[in-house]
Specification:
Shape: elongated
Largest sheet: 3 strands, antiparallel
Strand order of the largest sheet: 2-1-5
Radius of gyration: 32 Å
Structural class: mainly alpha
Distance between the termini: 51 Å
Order of helices and strands: HHEEHHHHEEHHHHE
């Protein structure tokens, strides 16, 4: 075959054949690379998040929003909810949890998965698991049993991981008391509105301030703690939106279409 091609290298037939081979390689290579890039919206430490998973996560959030807001849902409200970013954030969080669970050698076996599915009230009839209802509910939510069970396994794995993390943490009585005081602390604020232009040349004297505080001492002998601040009303300029994720953990996102 090679000898034949060498002898007839200058003929039009060989040139057409070589041209066809080159065209096939070029378009096959470009098509493979393009389809691979179009199918991935982000990578987390080398793990790809597919466009299909992103669309499914977005549609689930959209269905929840429609159920919650009903007829009150409009384009402005939908835009403010930023579902696209939330959908991607959920997938990134799930990937990070899976990777952490894998490093700790945590897993969910088939029995644990089956028991958790049977306990979900939406899949039960008269208090017992109903397979037909199970398939109907998933169909209404545009999910297959295989897809749901993969998602449910990941949720159970995340729950296991959180139990390991929280179970190993210890909180002392002192820390709990400090948190309670901080969470339930109240502050009494006295304020007065003044025209700043009337007090341009005022310079408070430290000695007079101390005399005033000493006169206001409580019966316990403790002076009230005070903080002073000057507040002015200004218009806040619009700020550029900051990235929603920290890229230090190996997360790379790719542009996605707004039309899902």
């Amino acid at each position: 075959m090679l000898d034949f091609m060498r002898k007839h290298a200058g003929t039009w037939m060989i040139k057409v054949l070589l041209f066809a081979i080159v065209v096939v390689f070029i378009f096959w290579g470009v098509g493979s690379w393009t389809s691979e890039q179009q199918g991935v919206v982000a990578t987390v430490n080398g793990e790809a998040i597919s466009l299909e998973a992103y669309r499914q996560s977005y549609n689930q959030l959209l269905d929840q929003v429609r159920q919650n807001f009903g007829a009150n849902l409009n384009d402005e409200l939908l835009k403010s909810l930023n579902l696209q970013t939330r959908a991607l954030d959920q997938l990134i969080d799930r990937a990070l949890l899976k990777q952490a669970a894998a490093r700790m050698k945590l897993e969910v076996n088939d029995d644990e998965l089956a028991q958790s599915v049977r306990r979900i009230p939406a899949f039960q009839s008269n208090g017992a698991f109903d397979r037909r209802r199970y398939q109907q509910v998933l169909s209404l939510n545009r999910m297959t049993p295989e897809t749901f069970e993969v998602s449910q396994r990941e949720n159970l794995l995340a729950t296991k991981l959180m139990k390991v993390i929280t179970g190993s943490s210890k909180v002392s009585d002192t820390e709990a008391e400090e948190w309670y005081k901080w969470d339930n602390a109240t502050v009494k604020i006295d304020f007065v509105c003044v025209d700043a232009d009337r007090y341009k040349n005022v310079s408070p004297q430290k000695r007079r301030s101390h005399s005033f505080l000493n006169a206001k001492k409580s019966p316990t002998g403790r002076s009230p703690r005070s903080k002073s601040a000057t507040c002015t009303s200004t218009r806040t300029p619009s700020l550029p939106q900051s990235p929603s994720r920290n890229r230090n953990c190996g997360i790379t996102t790719m542009p996605t279409s707004s039309a899902l």
